[in-house]
Amino acid sequence: MQSTARFVEGSIMRHIVIMTMTSALGLTFTFFIDFLSLFWLSKLADSAITASIAIAGAIMFLTISFSIAFMIPAVALVSRAVGRGETETARQHATASLILSSSALFAIAALVLIFLNPLINYVGADESQAVLDYARRFLYIVLPSIPFFTIAMTASAVLRAHGFAMHSMYVTLLGGAIAMILDPLLIIYFDWSVIGAAIAIVIARLGMTLYGLSLLIIKHNLLAPIGDIKLNGFVAPFFAIAIPAILTQASSPVGNIILTRQIAKFGEEALAGFAVNFRLMLLAFGGVFALSGAIGGIIGQNYGAGKLDRVRETYLKAIGFGAIYSLATWILLIILRPFVADIFSLSEQASRIPDAFIWTAWHFVFVSAIFVSNAAFNTLGRPIYSTGINWFRDVLLTYPIVLFMAGMMGDVGVVYAQVVVGILTGILAAYIGWNYIAKIARGEVTVERKHS
Question: What is the C-alpha to C-alpha distance for residues 173 and 425, in angstroms, rounded to an integer?
Answer without folding.
Answer: 31
